[in-house]
Amino acid sequence: MASLNFNSGDYVRLRLAKKETEGVVLESADSLILLLKLKSGYNVGIAKENILAGRVLKKFKEEKKVVQDFVESEDGKKKNIGLVVTGGTIASKLDPRTGGVAPLTDVSEFRKFYPELFEIVNVKKIEVPFMLASESMTSEHWIEIAKACEKMLNDKDISGAIVTHGTDFLHYTSAALSFFLKNLNKPVVLTYSQRSIDRASSDANLNLQCAARMAISDCAEVMLVGHASTNDDFCYAMPGTKVRKLHSSKRDAFKVVNASPIAKVFPDKIEFLGQHRPRNKDKVELDVSFNDKVALVKFYPGQDSAILDFYALKYKGLVIEAAGLGHLPVSEAEHNWIPKLKKHIRDGLVVCAASQTIFGRLDGYVYSNGRELMDAGVIFLEDMLAETALVKLGFVLGHHGWKGKAKEKMLENFSGELNDRLGV
């Protein structure tokens, strides 16, 4: 075994029995294993006894943090945007000592890692309300993002806002912003990356370039922009209330559900695919009334309706992911849900049904099952996504002036969450 005088973060070349390999040395919990990050971005563990020789090609040096303001282009041709940084892979950089990531919030670092963004726009303003993984967010974080966006949208010098965000629960945030920002006048673009910037397969750069292109477009919508396919060719701009993460790791993880993309977006051009709200001179109003006492429940075969008793104790509203066209066990079933539903709805619990098939529309009139549920007071949410429905229900119940109007408001199309043109 060769004598290895390496430190974590060093870029090294190793000679093994049959080949040579290069990479960054990472911290290892096992003293007998050298952990290496390869050029591909993947990590590999190599038994030290199998290393015949090795040398350092580049010593690790701690970067000094440089804080600087963004500088606008001298030609004055680039439009200004605002950037809201909230965390996630897209706002992370590799820590070469651990192989993990560290937050990327400094202005100069953003320019360093994403120079192509600054070739399209000037980043006039940057806000970092918090740095969190999306699974750690609550409605309070959605409200903070909405407040940051509202300030930017009502700034006459800013053409649009980009929000960088973690992927896992991004579609909840896009739905929330769609309801919270009224009289939208400029684009609000949420974007992400599935793979970190240190990997050759990272989707971050294209997503940000396309997000910048949409942020200065004529499209005054809340939208999510990300890879349209696994290739690095173009992105889709997707409506904020009709999009869902449908793959755990692919670059084109987000897809439009029960609707169509707003546009195909390239780094240098936009091809609109349908109608959109145009840029205008309205003043954006913030409406962040929200009631957190809502829950999303997925029905499964054999589920006991007593679960409704539990939720009725602490919650004001439920979205139930029902089967098919909106089915739950009713009068002919051994575990009939109708009595519990009637009791709790009568006592004030708002119960909505969304489809667990994701695609398609609910219809309570096709079978007697659906008619029984509707007669019991269950609100059928047509083609609305369950996640969007949960956010909308919290929004509706947060407005005390809408008391007694839950069904009316849940079926009112606020932000494109309902698609009347979609057939069953």
Explain this structure to me?
With 424 residues, this protein is of the alpha/beta class. It has three domains: 11-58, SH3 type barrels (Roll), CATH 2.30.30.520; 79-286, 3-Layer(aba) Sandwich (Rossmann fold); 294-410, Rossmann fold, CATH 3.40.50.40. Helices cover 22% and strands 25% of the residues. It has ten helices and 23 strands. It has helices at residues 107-113, 115-120, 139-153, 170-180, 204-215, 307-314, 338-346, 368-376, 386-397, 406-410, and strands spanning 11-15, 20-26, 33-37, 43-47, 53-58, 79-85, 92-94, 101-103, 121-127, 161-164, 181-182, 188-191, 222-227, 235-239, 243-245, 254-256, 263-266, 269-272, 285-286, 294-298, 317-322, 350-355, 379-380. An eight-stranded mixed beta sheet has the order 9-6-10-12-13-14-17-18, sandwiched between helices. Strands 4-3-2-1-5 form a five-stranded antiparallel beta sheet, with no helix packed on it. Strands 20-21-22-23 form a four-stranded parallel beta sheet, sandwiched between helices. A hairpin with a 7-residue loop joins strand 13 (222-227) and strand 14. Helix 3 (139-153) crosses helix 4 and helix 4 runs parallel beside helix 9 (386-397). The protein is globular and about 75 Å long. Mean pLDDT is 89; it is low at 64-75.
Task: Please tag this protein with its features.
alpha/beta, SH3 type barrels, Rossmann fold, eight-stranded mixed beta sheet, five-stranded antiparallel beta sheet, 10 helices
Question: Brief description of this entry?
Answer:
This protein is of the alpha/beta class and 424 residues long. It has helices at 107-113, 115-120, 139-153, 170-180, 204-215, 307-314, 338-346, 368-376, 386-397, 406-410, and strands at 11-15, 20-26, 33-37, 43-47, 53-58, 79-85, 92-94, 101-103, 121-127, 161-164, 181-182, 188-191, 222-227, 235-239, 243-245, 254-256, 263-266, 269-272, 285-286, 294-298, 317-322, 350-355, 379-380.
